[in-house]
């Protein structure tokens, strides 16, 4: 089971109450988790703010209190994120499998080489699988990635919509926000 992001884009109405204007439902966590929680890639920017006290009735109706990782951000904060920030993996990713049957292996551990306790003497400069007895090590060299490369088409649409909504209330940086939470 994976982790999904849910939430709403909210806009402050003329009566100074928040209204949900765009529902976010089951967006894939790893594509934007780096902004809201520590997913092991980028440092989270808007982590753990909780739910705002004045959320819209749409947010309340979504029952977010049953989930976790509640946070939010004003549009201007999202616009100030360094989307060109580059993440370079600190070392090769290692996946360790142990033999389960004569023909198959089960996952035993995964992480980066620098996190591994007592790594075996292997050539970590080369990608691929190496078997040592009943253990197989898979070495993967991950490429560097820019934060903006983590945006799916769905998230691009959310941010394009927020960009448009921001033009409807110029100079009101605190009247448009994204409220999210996680489940799974």
Question: Can you describe this structure?
Answer:
With 184 residues, this protein is an alpha+beta fold. The chain is 18% helix and 37% strand. It has helices spanning 29-36, 57-61, 75-79, 153-168; strands spanning 4-12, 18-28, 68-74, 86-87, 93-101, 104-112, 128-132, 135-140, 145-146, 176-183. The strands form three sheets. Strands 2-1-10-3 form a four-stranded antiparallel beta sheet. Strands 6-5-8-7 form a four-stranded antiparallel beta sheet, with no helix packed on it. It has a two-stranded antiparallel ribbon with strand order 4-9. Strand 1 (4-12) and strand 2 (18-28) form a beta hairpin. The longest helix is centred in the C-terminal third of the chain and has 16 residues, at 153-168.
Gap between N and C termini: 7 Å
Question: Count of DSSP E strands?
Answer: 10
How much of the polypeptide forms β-strand, as a percent range? 35-45%
Largest sheet: 4 strands, antiparallel
Uncertain runs are none
Strand neighbour order, sheet with most strands: 2-1-10-3
Quick check: average pLDDT? 86
Strand-and-helix sequence, N→C?
A: EEHHEHEEEEEEHE
How many domains would you count in the coordinates? 2
């Amino acid at each position: 089971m994976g982790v999904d992001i849910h939430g709403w884009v909210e806009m402050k109405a003329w009566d100074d109450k928040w209204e949900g204007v765009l529902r976010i439902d089951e967006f894939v966590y790893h594509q934007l988790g780096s902004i809201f929680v520590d997913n092991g890639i980028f440092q989270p920017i808007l982590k753990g703010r909780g739910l705002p006290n004045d959320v819209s009735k749409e947010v309340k109706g979504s029952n977010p209190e049953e989930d976790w990782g509640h946070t939010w951000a004003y549009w201007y904060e999202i616009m100030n994120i360094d989307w060109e920030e580059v993440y370079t993996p600190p070392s090769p990713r290692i996946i360790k499998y142990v033999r389960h049957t004569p023909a198959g292996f089960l996952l035993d551990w995964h992480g980066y080489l620098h996190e591994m306790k007592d790594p075996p003497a292997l050539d970590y400069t080369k990608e691929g699988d190496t078997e040592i007895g009943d253990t197989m090590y898979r070495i993967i060299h991950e490429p560097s990635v820019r934060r903006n490369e983590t945006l799916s088409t769905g998230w691009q649409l959310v941010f394009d919509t927020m960009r448009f909504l921001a033009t409807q209330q110029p100079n009101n940086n605190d009247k448009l926000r994204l409220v999210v939470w996680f489940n799974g």
